[in-house]
């Protein structure tokens, strides 16, 4: 996207037609839109969008909303890191501090929750709990895409990124339980013989 300079028209130019042939800008070069690196940061963008839906659903809770806003900023930083491999993106490298922050928030929410003895069905006491489970699943997919990218010879992936995504999916699971009255309204899966 670019901003138009001509005259008083200051709108952002969204349609560039540069991607019509199936390529996109990555760092200082172009890459196929189906390339593993583009898939990885695209999956992170999907997770960020779903977390935006969750953030909207919990907007009356300033603490959770604030935490999720920081997560969205983290995910933009991760996208920038993934899209600028090598020295070109040295200033954009994702740092370890957000991992520690999210671990502390996870522990804070988890302290009020009872232990679970079995798997939980991904649903909610209301839409916010269900959105937290959806965000968790989409974040896990982003993590898998990033891990797959890291397995390709010659592809550079900051090791803080998969760590953060792994921790974020745990955080979203605990948040879903928190939104389900700290586990009181969890829908627990039972094995076939116990249903």
UniProtKB/TrEMBL annotation:
Which residue ranges run through the membrane?
Answer: none
What keywords is this UniProt entry annotated with? ATP-binding, Cobalamin biosynthesis, Nucleotide-binding, Transferase
Class of the enzyme per the UniProt entry, highest EC level: transferase
**InterPro entries, A to Z:** CblAdoTrfase-like, CblAdoTrfase-like_sf, PduO-typ
Identify the residues that the record assigns to the Cobalamin adenosyltransferase-like domain, covering every copy: 15-178
Q: What is its EC number?
A: 2.5.1.17
Q: Which residues form a coiled coil?
A: none
One Gene Ontology biological process: cobalamin biosynthetic process
Question: SUPFAM superfamilies given for it?
Answer: Cobalamin adenosyltransferase-like (SSF89028)
Which pathway is this protein assigned to?
Cofactor biosynthesis; adenosylcobalamin biosynthesis; adenosylcobalamin from cob(II)yrinate a,c-diamide: step 2/7
UniProt GO MF annotations = ATP binding; corrinoid adenosyltransferase activity
Assigned protein family: Belongs to the Cob(I)alamin adenosyltransferase family.
Which PANTHER family is this protein grouped with? Answer: CORRINOID ADENOSYLTRANSFERASE, CORRINOID ADENOSYLTRANSFERASE MMAB
Q: What is this protein called?
A: Corrinoid adenosyltransferase
Organism of origin: Roseiarcus fermentans
């Amino acid at each position: 996207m670019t901003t138009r300079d001509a005259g008083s028209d200051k709108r952002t130019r969204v349609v560039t037609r540069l991607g019509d042939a199936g390529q996109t800008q990555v760092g200082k070069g172009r890459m196929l839109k189906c390339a593993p690196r583009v898939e990885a940061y695209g999956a992170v963008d999907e997770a960020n969008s779903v977390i935006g839906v969750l953030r909207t659903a919990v907007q009356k809770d300033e603490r959770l909303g604030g935490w999720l806003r920081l997560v969205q900023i983290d995910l933009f930083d991760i996208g920038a890191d993934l899209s600028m491999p090598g020295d070109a993106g040295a200033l954009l490298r994702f740092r370890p501090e957000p991992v520690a922050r999210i671990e502390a928030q996870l522990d804070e929410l988890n302290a009020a929750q009872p232990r679970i003895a079995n798997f939980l069905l991904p649903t909610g006491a209301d839409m916010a709990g269900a959105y937290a489970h959806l965000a968790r699943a989409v974040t896990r997919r982003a993590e898998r895409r990033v891990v797959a990218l890291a397995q390709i010879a010659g592809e550079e992936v900051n090791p803080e990124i998969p760590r953060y995504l792994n921790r974020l999916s745990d955080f979203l699971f605990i948040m879903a339980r928190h939104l389900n009255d700290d586990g009181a309204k969890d829908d627990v899966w039972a094995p076939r013989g116990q249903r």
